Amino acid sequence: MLFSDIALLDENFEVQTNRWVGTLDGRIAYIGDTAPGPEEAALYGEVYDGDEKLLVPGMYNAHAHAPMTLLRGYAENLPLQAWLNDRVFPFEDKITGEDTYWATMLACAEMLRYGTVSFSDMYYHTRERIQAVAECGMKMNACEGLLAFEPKPYAEYPICRMNEDLIREFHGSADGRILIDYNIHSEYLSNPVVVADIAKLAKEKGLNIHVHVSETKLEHEECKERHEGMTPIRYFESLGVLDVPVTAAHCVWVDDGDIEILAAKGVYVASNPVSNMKLGSGFAPVVRMLERGVNVALGTDGMASNNNHDMYQDLYVLALIQKGANLDPTAVSPASAMRAATRTGALSQGRKDCGHIALGAKADLAVLDASGPSWCPATDMLNNLVFAGHGSDVCLTMADGAVLYREGEWPTIDVERAKAEVEVRTQRIIASL
């Protein structure tokens, strides 16, 4: 595709106007202020009219539980522990692999509708999730959720063999769109023996670890009680977890010492501001993290605690609440927020050639219609993008150069079938509880 005369958000997160961008073989092959020559232009195929449009990097959702689409609206107005133990875990115990496939497919349709091209997903029935993502054309870092209560070696858990099979069969599959991570659900749903074993395996294989960290004050303080005053971050550091690439979801209650460790170890923090507010968990100290050089990415979390996959909503909230929480209107600039949602999210997944608009980068792109009333006047397009735009302004989403959503159409997903399947399956599960 050749985007003509379009505004774009460049790799420095500055808006450039009247640009031409060509995608070829899944990558960005041309960026210029004039059209390429006729022969080169012919290589790109369709010319896309960029009038009153804004071209941005696709969103990278750094923390999701896609099959929890099944639970949208089901577990509400509860604190995290009651939410998990009384509503979520009993429901999840009834979810089948086929349920997971359809819920993931519907989640993918929703993400694509709002400009997301890739997500880091922590859940169960990983084969079915991979099947859905591979079929629809998105990207995913998948990990099989680990709950480990017995203090025995990781090798003695059935999930160990399952993970080895997943890594062998699927890591780097679908032309690199599917990657496999290791998982530790959290400090409170694991034990030191298993955690140390996973850290060692991840280091040997060069793979990422995805983990929940300090989501609630209760979790944070109980960890200190169990482990001689160590916070979850210090606990995981002591067991070698932070010696490999880690995506630490939430980090709402990390202290200054934790933040220093996060920065020193290069940990990627997946902030989930909407979920954290909805569950009453608190506000992550994102400003302090950014000031100390922590890699902050953005996630939606699951649909039982968000309730939608519109990353533009989370983008807006990320930028907005930090200003209020810190009594500082300069906190988290629009550029910093967009970087968290795109480039940093891509790097958290180990996708170094993704998440920004640059020559040679993967063509993971979204087009927003900037002709609506909320975009006028366009005194600053980046400010409009973060504070006045909406996910519903996305009119095209492309991953690896393939158009996966365009103006109400999903060429790779039967959305009506996915909606019907999820509705029926959710009602079946609720009726069985």
From TrEMBL:
Q: Which InterPro entries match?
A: Amidohydro-rel (IPR006680), Metal-dep_hydrolase_composite (IPR011059), Metal_Hydrolase (IPR032466), MTA/SAH_deaminase (IPR050287)
Residue intervals of the Amidohydrolase-related domain: 55-403
Entry keywords, A to Z: Hydrolase
Q: Identify the PANTHER family for this entry.
A: AMIDOHYDROLASE-RELATED DOMAIN-CONTAINING PROTEIN, AMINOHYDROLASE SSNA-RELATED
Q: What is this protein called?
A: Amidohydrolase
